[in-house]
Amino acid sequence: MKIGFIGLGNMGAPMALNLLKAGHAVNVFDLSAQVVQALVDAGAKAAGSPKAAVTDVECVITMLPAAAHVRSVLSADDGVFAGIAKGVTIIDSSTIDPASVKAFAELAVQHGNTFVDAPVSGGTGGAAAGTLTFMVGGSADAYEQVKPVLSAMGKNIVHCGDTGTGQVAKICNNLVLGITMAGVAEAMSLGEALGIDSKVLGGIINTSTGRCWSSDTYNPMPGVIETAPSTRGYTGGFGTDLMLKDLGLATDAAKFARQPVYLGALAQQLYQTMSTKGAGRLDFSAVIKLYRKDGKDGKDGKDGKDGKDGDAS
Amino acid sequence: MKIGFIGLGNMGAPMALNLLKAGHAVNVFDLSAQVVQALVDAGAKAAGSPKAAVTDVECVITMLPAAAHVRSVLSADDGVFAGIAKGVTIIDSSTIDPASVKAFAELAVQHGNTFVDAPVSGGTGGAAAGTLTFMVGGSADAYEQVKPVLSAMGKNIVHCGDTGTGQVAKICNNLVLGITMAGVAEAMSLGEALGIDSKVLGGIINTSTGRCWSSDTYNPMPGVIETAPSTRGYTGGFGTDLMLKDLGLATDAAKFARQPVYLGALAQQLYQTMSTKGAGRLDFSAVIKLYRKDGKDGKDGKDGKDGKDGDAS
Amino acid sequence: MKIGFIGLGNMGAPMALNLLKAGHAVNVFDLSAQVVQALVDAGAKAAGSPKAAVTDVECVITMLPAAAHVRSVLSADDGVFAGIAKGVTIIDSSTIDPASVKAFAELAVQHGNTFVDAPVSGGTGGAAAGTLTFMVGGSADAYEQVKPVLSAMGKNIVHCGDTGTGQVAKICNNLVLGITMAGVAEAMSLGEALGIDSKVLGGIINTSTGRCWSSDTYNPMPGVIETAPSTRGYTGGFGTDLMLKDLGLATDAAKFARQPVYLGALAQQLYQTMSTKGAGRLDFSAVIKLYRKDGKDGKDGKDGKDGKDGDAS
Amino acid sequence: MKIGFIGLGNMGAPMALNLLKAGHAVNVFDLSAQVVQALVDAGAKAAGSPKAAVTDVECVITMLPAAAHVRSVLSADDGVFAGIAKGVTIIDSSTIDPASVKAFAELAVQHGNTFVDAPVSGGTGGAAAGTLTFMVGGSADAYEQVKPVLSAMGKNIVHCGDTGTGQVAKICNNLVLGITMAGVAEAMSLGEALGIDSKVLGGIINTSTGRCWSSDTYNPMPGVIETAPSTRGYTGGFGTDLMLKDLGLATDAAKFARQPVYLGALAQQLYQTMSTKGAGRLDFSAVIKLYRKDGKDGKDGKDGKDGKDGDAS
């Protein structure tokens, strides 16, 4: 299949690579010449604009940081709508707000195209391994149509419902994730202050009603889970600033839907505080630093690799 | 073994019954003549006071609503310390604050006894089935000593560390539980308002990073998990007022330890609001009623059986 | 002076009327023919579009519900920029986010105009009486230029700093207001539950360190302040949905500035809950209904006049 | 009048001094020989125990850190009840929980005495100057009886209602205070981040609906109010740990009364975080340090004099 791929960041580049490996012909566009060249070396064809990337393709995939970028890539003079043929489906794997998805879908209909939201979980690790989960919003027909393409990049291709529900699923899951992580951080810190061994406490929670991914897989207390970012200085993983972005989308969506999100709004403030104090690039489980007494973490809260190199969510 | 058992409530009565079934001789005391008679009918010996219940026994077990009751049962003129022989161990399975545990343990030492905290999880279902989890705080010797007795009433007998750490484990687990339940309630309500099918959303969360007991076993949105209290009108389960009590213990312990518990303190307010508005006896997953738009739950928030008849925590 | 006035809602209409009373010639535009006619009856000249309203004027004033309306009024084909002469100043008295202000100001510069943000406080009462406070963001020159025009509609014309700072002042003040009102509601409800007379408690707070406008002027407990909306069933005043809008702007601005706003985000959830449960049109002091036990307020939370007819903020 | 005074801390010592100045004969007791000697030098008579201090007096005044101290001073073998004559009134000016007040009042009745709660506001400055406010809980008769004695130490002697309502008034006022201070800190920090001058913003808030003592008298942003602790490095004033104690009392009272206190519980966490991070002795307005970006406050959050030397609340 001939595919136009726009947005070759930490996630987009390995995704496009997997499309090439699966035998697809891929036109790529990104503002960074360096990442474009890496894909060209792997067999992609470089395009000078989104418009150029989507001319004559059978499918368009976008993977961009925020709704504003998607809007620009779609509607600019040299954008997707300027070059795309009628009937071609646009798959947007960016994580953006559901209201923007609906607006883009209407624009697509006006141009004779279909717009499907398909945000992912699985991080850069899943992107490289081709084991991402895609949460797809669109009609049953559209889902069936995009499933084969997405299968080259992911393991689970889940149909969430109509247009926008892919984003809703992603946002709601990460809302729970942001809350549970901060909740586990509170409980583990409280337990530490009250004198229980962290491994014992983790073990009890993980076999009881408090069990959750944030405790049994990504426990924020160093040493409880050997493979968690907390045990390697909160490096790698899912960056605090990315969690902050997703909680921002969740609270925005809640405002749009006129729904209260008490714990979500508070969790957002906790990650914002981490970011404001300079720890935005640490794994989001570093939120536990807000709770532990000074000197107990052996870190200054400012180191850590780029949080984007994550393997969570 | 000859055991004195004090406190025959919804949890204590089936626990004492299991001791009888295991062949122990059990002296029982409770303020309610009715529950005492039920145990006597099953083979227990009624005692007229805590003092009378513990004379000549090899082990004392208390299962009471709050620290004030434990204090009174221990120290009253006709209390445990007035009748207990030196060297006998007192096992308190009540859920109380760790600071009180330490005070009771010191009193016990002064009387030549050992005090072990052993709060439970598993609810009245686990108490009846003998499948409770006991979280034991005390020395390694004390743990080895009480393990056989507790095994007649529970399946998992976990040694948490020194005196008080059993309570710390219970409190910290339920802190996570109270937060995750409210967090899942927010996310499921937000998803509903944004138009995603609740079963689809539940399915995604339960296989992703948001997965937790509050979502995959006790999901607060009716219909997502067939066996959850939400699907039977929030009856049975773990009562809102009991969760409120445990979050009260958690925030008290945090105050004592001078630790912040942002989400825990906020979750406490949410369950308090439920209780203040008359829903204290519903299962704690009914907290989702705070989020869903009126008319969507088909309930007035005031029905439901006694929340004490729970099978969670 | 010849002025174009766009947006004749509950606030805009009386403001335009005061301009007429001061002797200005006013072109008016609004989507509602009815409100336009009322102004025409008072001496204004009706315009068929924003473009038509601003042709040949010396000053343009906009008073609109949200940033999206301002954007449309400015940039539509028959919008302000299509008709305005170079050098004319646009005064926007809408309450919108500071980032949009800066975007509009840049557009204005491109068209050879100056854009000044001048949101108001004082409510519909102040608008009618011509006693509004205007918080002006713009250069010192621009401030001096708009001051005489604004003086026809308000009593205090405050220069807040550069473009956008008028909105910052408005948003930050209302952030404090939303928090203090909910805080006073908590304290008055707690005092009531603990048995102190509400008037006595109000009196103590109002002469002590807890004193604030939300207590000494707008106390949410009925009967404490005779002239407060709480004493007349939470009618009139400043509507819950308007406070919710302003807290939405504050939390959006905080997200933009990467600043935590813990209490603001939580207060937003409280007003959102009121709105979700159907009380959005009551005065925002009705937030106390979330705290008082059922049956103590004699209201069902759904009555009340349109919150827009307010005299606060 | 002959008075027994127990508790000569930062508040108690100057209060006892003012009784001496007013011509009363005062027996004093404190665990610190040094503070007792200072009072003896001023004309007081030292007592070796609370019992000794209250023998033959016409009135007893206690000023102690917490309810546990009051309980001990009243009920110990050499305590107040062991020495006091029937009919003598006990005035407790400590800040403690209303439930303890009621328990102490019942004990007093059993001994033939009257117990009046009379917590103060005005800080050490007001204690020295004799300008404290006393919030008195007790019968109208008891109020009339204690008023002359309290007038030697304070300016406003307010009758709040029955026993315990003095504490309720104090706690509810400080609940509002703790919330408004953190709210003002959020708004001033947000304004700073958004580029408005802090003095301008403070001026607008202080003449608008956001005005409150925490902004117009004790503004947490340095330089806005010249006489505020923020302008002198957060020294002096009302210590963070004291505010934390009072919010602890408020949330405890709310738990007792089964009332939600959303903002109060969250504010408690903010001051707890300050204390946990080492800033407990700074004035409570230092809570703004949680919000401002690093490097903007020129402080490390750990300096500052003893927060007890306060002039607020």
UniProtKB/TrEMBL annotation, chains A, B, C, D:
InterPro entries: 3-OH-isobutyrate_DH-rel_CS, 6-PGluconate_DH-like_C_sf, 6PGD_dom2, 6PGDH_NADP-bd, HIBADH, HIBADH-like_NADP-bd, HIBADH-related, NAD(P)-bd_dom_sf. Gene3D superfamilies: N-(1-d-carboxylethyl)-l-norvaline Dehydrogenase, domain 2, NAD(P)-binding Rossmann-like Domain. GO terms for molecular function: 3-hydroxyisobutyrate dehydrogenase activity; NAD binding; NADP binding. It comes from the Bacteria. It is an enzyme of class 1 (oxidoreductase). The active site is at residue 170. The keyword NAD applies. Residues 294-313 are annotated as: Disordered. Its EC number is 1.1.1.31. This is 3-hydroxyisobutyrate dehydrogenase.
